[in-house]
Amino acid sequence: MTEFSSRVEQVSISGIREVFEAAGEDAINLGLGQPDFPAPAHARQAAVDAIEAGKTDAYTSNKGTAELREAIAAKHDRDNGFSVDPADVIATAGGSEALHIAIEAHVDEGQEVLVPDPGFVSYEALTHLAGGDPKPVALREDLTMSPEAVEAAITDDTAAFVVNSPANPTGAVQSEADIRAFARIADDHDVLCISDEVYEPFVFDGEHHSPMSYADSDNVVVVNAASKFYSMTGWRLGWVTGPHERIERMLRVHQYVQACASAPAQFAAEAALEGPQGHVDEMREAFERRRDVLVDGLEEMGLQVPTPKGAFYAMPRVPDGWVDAVIDRGVVVVPGEAFGDHGAGHARISYAVGIETLKEAIEVMREATNAVAR
Ligand SMILES: Cc1ncc(COP(=O)(O)O)c(C=O)c1O
Q: Kindly report the CA angle at 245 between 134 and 158, in degrees rounded to 5?
């Protein structure tokens, strides 16, 4: 067989899948990275209507339909305190493709990308695939990323740093002061800030802030998606927005790897963005209630857990053998090291499950904690 590229050889299949495979069929799965709610009915219906009207059989414009991009621009105006021209939005195959084209368009062979550690697994993998060199930035005790640590890690070879608030796998939310500092770092060091905001609506304490609102330079791009926002992970619809010249470069990658995002998904996302947002509020309220139940449960069993302020993950510090003991008892959680070396000694627990299931899982975790402590 011929050789594979050295870039692809640096990437392996996510450790999360291995955990799922190790678990039995009736395990309670607290490993999932998606909301456990249906997509909004009006979003589904918009796709059905568009399909039936024959509007989805052809490619759309590479950037996506004008109507979807207008809905995305209106959303940023409404929710985020910054304005973008709909011409500076690219609809993508989920947040994943948006991250891919952002990194591909900005990172040269051998250049560094600073990524949170523990952090979402794609940042490191996509950097490798672009020929770049991911540089992990260890998080603070409360699992937020310190702007000082980012600034200290910047070298002449740094192309970009990734900010992810609210964060996977930690549930941490960066403060407004941190987000302002990230914007300043992008300005002062002339380094790109890739802000991954896919968990934006799920902030329980305080508010979501985007570095795009504070940067004076053109050095921020924002990635977002309908995936978590509207519980539409299967629809594969995300977007990236940023300064025009950056969008034009990212479009070159998007045009060749994707051509355009799926047309039915674009109609569904447009309806989700423009329709009533009560569904998102309900998800946030449910996640917050579950967060409280989970954190209380973990603390009662003697585990230390930085209070997650957003998303739907908690990341307690756990003793050696804890993750295996929990999985052996039929609850799937993900070992922290799946998210980077600094994740070791932690576990990621997703609470995107009903509250009764979560309570059952907490009892199992309590048994496992007692067993490991003995
Ligand atoms: C932090 C973060 N960013 C981006 C994504 C990609 O989401 P999608 O491609 O499903 O929109 C995920 C998915 O888990 C994520 O956790």
A: 20
What does the alpha-carbon distance between residue 206 and residue 76 come to, in Å, rounded to a whole number? 18
Strands across the sheet containing 347-350: 313-314, 347-350, 334-335
Ligand 1 nearest-atom number relative to CA 237: 11
CA of 198 to the centre of ligand 1 (A): 6
For the record, the structure tokens of 295 come out as 């954190």
Q: Which fold has domain 41-274?
A: Aspartate Aminotransferase; domain 2 (3.40.640)
Query: pTM to 2 decimals?
Result: 0.97
Question: For residue range 177-205, what is the model confidence (pLDDT) as tens digits?
Answer: 999 999 999 999 999 999 999 999 999 98
129 lines ligand 1 (CB under 6 A): no
pLDDT digits (tens, 9 = 90+) for 133-148: 999 999 999 999 999 9
CATH architecture of 6-39+278-373: Alpha-Beta Complex (3.90)
Ligand 1 pocket residue status of 225, Cβ below 6 Å = yes
Closest ligand 1 atom to Cα of 196:
3
